[in-house]
Give the backbone structure.
Amino acid sequence: MLKTEKNNLASTNLIKIGRNFLGILNDLKRRPEDAAIELNISLEEIQSIIEGTIELSSEIVDHAVKIWPVNKRDFYVIDDDCYTGVKIMLSEESKKSSRIMERAGKPYYEYRDTAMSRIAPFRPEWIMELCHVDDNDPENNSIQWNNGHFMHQFTYFVGEVNFYYKDNNGEKKVAIMNTGDSMYITPFVSHTFATRNNTKSNGLILALTYGGKLTGDVQQELSSLSNLGVEYALDFSTKNSSIISLLKYFCEISSISIDELSKRVGIKKEQILDYEDGKISIPHDVLQKFAEALNVNLRDLLPNDKIEKKVIVQKHNDGKKWSYPNLTKCYEFLELVHTNTLPFSKAFELEVNNTDDKKLDLRAGLHQYVYNTGNNPIVINWEFDGKEFSENIESGDSLYIKPFIKHNFRGNGKLLILRIGGKVVGDSQRELSFIGKNNTERAISETMQWFDPKGNN
């Protein structure tokens, strides 16, 4: 990166920190002059921090957290390392990150990094299976199980790999996987992988691990609540238990008794107790009455339409296929494994067909991970901040694409694509939409004090 680009990025970061600082002052109802007095610095320094012309020092932050109900991490913003909207990691760079993981004193996996970004929610792993098995027994003594991990995991298989996992009942299972097959596992499910014997090469997986809604600030809040945080986990084992758990939770946070709820909805207390005991299911019209009585949306009392398994396996031939876009059919999409539990997680195998069409025909409001699983180079073209870019993606190269970047892929080959919503989609997106586009910029980065000292009639 050129020196001028680094300087521009540093300047942009100072502006972001300054606006974030102003947002904190607004939330605390502190004018700049109030903050100057309480932090024992000049008003000029406060204004310069807000304007992004000087750095917010660690000394100021240390003082702020002592006198205000804020945390140090509140004052810092994420450094954007994806300067052009797309970040590429070459295959040769991945090889340099190679490390051998041993289990039980023997080489078990070779790990390599692929494209990652500070602003992206995923931590993708290239993993070669160095352990070989000569049967498909889940009790095979050669395999070494892990303890599970906090990340959701989508896995794409290359070669002949056995996938071992424990099902909902804790029973050990094995899935016999081949190239193009895929699977999803929820956090903390114990699992492992091995190459089947008599293959030409070691099996390989692209294990794309990523954080859901519980990472970051949510995890920090749960941690600060210690054992109390466990109470947030409701019984979602069945649809009925999910509805009852949600109903009880909203009654509790509103301090509404069974008697009061009965009065509001016009249903006998005994019938509500039968609902809670699971003796009878709650009809849709009654659930609507409960929602109105509790001043919530109906969706707040509804569970997922489907109670998913902890592990979902999909064979390559079982995926749905379609062409896109309708007119040019530049791409053939194959849908890989998916779960209703994570509606903003989408995985595809993408066949890129040769075309001279220059239109940037792809755009997704999700973070995207792309890996060239084919043998041929693919060109990615994209637009960012009014500029056009183009790069070759060779076999084994990977990349990250920011949400809403207009782009296309050209050439003749195959790509693996994982799209993930991150923290913004879902309830956060609904809240942002409720605030409205006109106020979105201030929601993202505060630009003004919450009131005008000169008055505003």
Observations:
- The first strand starts at residue 86 and ends at 89.
- The mean pLDDT is 92.
- The CA atoms of residues 94 and 105 lie 25 Å apart.
